[in-house]
Specification:
This protein has 375 residues and is mainly α. It has 16 helices and eight strands.
């Protein structure tokens, strides 16, 4: 049982957390560190060892294994990032990093060991981009360990695999016209939602979170303030221990509605007048979701399945709905949109992201540029 004032508490997820003074800055400000464990006694012993002196911390790190560092980092990170982001971190660590590095003592970790992991994942047919994400997460965990004084990264180098640009499959202008014609002819709330993607470039998760209260009919804009996604339920294993009623039963994944991807993704987007007129015919109560017409929303994978069905009906290639975002950005650039305005519409933090990732020049556009040359 924890005592008042000793900075040890039991968390909502069932684990114990102990806070300790890691260091003091020159202005006297205290920088705190945190340790985690399954029992009160475990975290107390960890905390006492770390707070005894700097040699105590070095002693703790001497036999510390990577599994312990992963668990500590997850505990510290869980409530500092979005739930969906943490679910991704936790999945990468549990499925890939911990099985490979978990048994290693921190002092035995080396550049060669990390490089071997990278090579193995590439041989297992993981994409260079995915392996890079794993290595970046590993570097963040190790950086935390160095900050805490558990290890030194001075002699460890992490080499990222080279990412080859993959051709992106987006609809041609003619194919996009066919899709738009189909969506306009089959007038429903769902097809209107897809038209919003075509004419605004919003993400599918943002579309799923769109409610009628987010549309400003007076000024002709929509307010993007939330996104919907299906994520791993990180409390599933802990929650399913013991007997549960049907009402209490947990699922392995869950649908969540959170703030958008980044602060810059919270934005107002103008909607074409003709589309506002179509939307006005279906307008519902403020808390009703646009895609479904009721107070229960739709998740992205359901939208993707219905989108694929529409593509099949139109005789169009099977593409991801996210490609509509790319097509929107490319079309806007071809029409001479201001890059800064386009970046803000897409919800990017910089114009560079917009131009590097979402803008794709067609061969016809390149020919038009070449034909304009006049020496």
């Amino acid at each position: 049982m924890s005592k008042h004032g000793e900075n040890i508490r039991k968390r909502k997820d069932g684990r114990w957390e102990a806070r300790y003074e890691r260091k003091r800055l020159k202005d006297g400000k205290i920088c705190y560190g945190y340790v985690y464990g399954e029992t009160y006694q475990e975290v107390k012993e960890k905390r006492d060892l770390l707070t005894h002196d700097t040699r105590g911390r070095a002693a703790a790190a001497k036999n510390m294994i990577m599994y312990e560092l992963f668990e500590e980092w997850l505990g510290v990170t869980r409530y500092t990032v979005k739930e969906s982001t943490f679910a991704l971190y936790e999945t990468i660590i549990r499925k890939h990093l911990s099985p490979e590095f978990g048994a290693y003592k921190l002092r035995h970790l080396s550049t060669e060991v990390i490089q071997g992991f990278s090579v193995t994942k590439m041989k297992e047919k993981f994409s260079p981009r995915t392996v890079r994400c794993m290595l970046i997460l590993l570097k963040n965990v190790l950086g935390y360990g160095e900050q805490m004084g558990y290890l030194s990264l001075r002699d460890i180098q992490i080499r990222y695999p080279k990412i080859a640009e993959q051709p992106l499959h987006i609809l041609t202008d003619r194919q996009l016209q066919l899709l738009v014609s189909y969506l306009e002819d089959h007038n429903s709330q769902f097809t209107l939602g897809l038209l919003l993607c075509v004419y605004s470039g919003i993400r599918v998760g943002e579309l799923c979170g769109l409610q009628w209260g987010d549309l400003d009919f007076e000024h002709g804009v929509m307010n993007i303030t939330k996104t919907v996604s299906r994520i791993k339920n990180i409390d599933y294993e802990r929650a399913t221990v013991g007997r549960q009623s049907k009402k209490e039963k947990q699922t392995k994944t869950m649908v969540v509605m959170t703030a958008p991807k980044s602060p810059s993704s919270v934005r107002d987007i103008p909607i074409p007048d003709f589309l506002m007129e179509k939307l006005l015919r279906f307008k519902g109560d403020e808390d009703v979701f646009l895609l479904t017409g009721n107070r229960s929303g739709m998740e992205p994978r359901c939208v993707q399945r219905r989108f694929q069905s529409i593509l099949k009906s139109c005789g169009l290639p099977d593409i991801n709905i996210h490609s509509l975002r790319h097509a929107f950005a490319s079309r806007c650039t071809e029409m001479g949109f201001d890059c800064k305005a386009l970046s803000e519409i897409l919800g990017h933090s910089s114009v560079k992201i917009t131009m590097d990732i979402y803008v794709h020049s067609s061969m016809q556009q390149k020919k038009n540029y070449i034909n304009q040359l006049n020496y």
